[in-house]
Amino acid sequence: MECSTDPELVLNAGIHDQRLALKFIQRHIRSFGGNPNKVTLMGQSAGAGAVGLHLTAARKDQWEAVANLVGCSTNPSTIAHTLECLRTVNPVQLMQAADDGKKQHSGSLWAWLPVIDNTLFKSNPASILKAIPGVDVIVGHTTADSASGGTPFEAVVNATYPGLTASDIDTLKAMYVKAGITEGNMATFGLGEAVFRCGTHFLANLYGSRAHTYRWDEPDPANPASAGHSSDNYILYEGSRTLSNGTGEFHALTPAQRGLSDETIAYFTSFYANGVPKAANTSSVNHPVWPAHPTGKRIVFRAEGGGTGGIQGTPGASFVEELNLEEVERCKIWNSMVNRAGM
């Protein structure tokens, strides 16, 4: 998406802030014993999206909705005045307006996205990724990662990917009917697949032998029925996570979950150090060799005696599985539509 060229309106401010932090790291990391040529970025969910953007603007109606909610004019001739007004608004009030503005665009998964600003991003990030040199990456998703719920499939796809045609949506719907996905679950499953599972395949295919993929199959302590979105955060952050309202939540880990936390952190820190995820000296019993993506295999993270048992395998410790070939084929269809999705 492209947006205003007004010089007063700096687009993608959050990404610019992150780049400033990265410049600080480049400038000072040697003082802490680090190597500026070996910096690893880690992000989960939206944070992972930000990491992807660093490898490679708000929509006008949404901008107007938020500005009007906090009493700032959106007259196109006074954009500088509008921006100055927004800068004086109480941050809590502005965040609430952003949430309220998102509700006015029901169905869309993405209310506030980076935009093509001709500075950081000069074209569709998917196209940029295909043109740049590869880097070492770890990318994955949870077993029950999902991105929507309760909204009819056609409506949520239209709102999230406005560039797709009616024919595209018919193709996608027929694909999920063939896969046995019910109408009531199609939006949740289909958009979860498009965003998380197909995104994993897309990036891993770009980076080939430099990519390692995973499926997280350990439920978080607060939601033991399934390994849903962000369930890995609980395990990796000692049983705690920050909720959307800014408060924290804590659930003590079992000994087995603590072993999984140790194991996963060992794989990740090994990757940070040398680009290869290995595990050693952890309290978990089983440390499978994590194969690179071209093998057609990925690691599944589970606590000893845990996991959901979903997709492939049986409940137990971490193991390596074959990629789900039906999922891979569905993702080829999703990924063929990337350039016209129009997010």
TrEMBL record:
The keyword Hydrolase is annotated on this UniProt entry: yes
The protein's Enzyme Commission number: 3.1.1.-
UniProt KW keywords: Hydrolase
Enzyme class (EC, first level): hydrolase
Gene Ontology MF terms: hydrolase activity
Ranges of residues in domain Carboxylesterase type B: 7-58, 60-146
Sections of the chain in a coiled coil: none
Domain of life: Eukaryota
PANTHER family linked: CARBOXYLESTERASE (PTHR11559)
Family recorded in the similarity comment: Belongs to the type-B carboxylesterase/lipase family.
Protein name as annotated: Carboxylic ester hydrolase
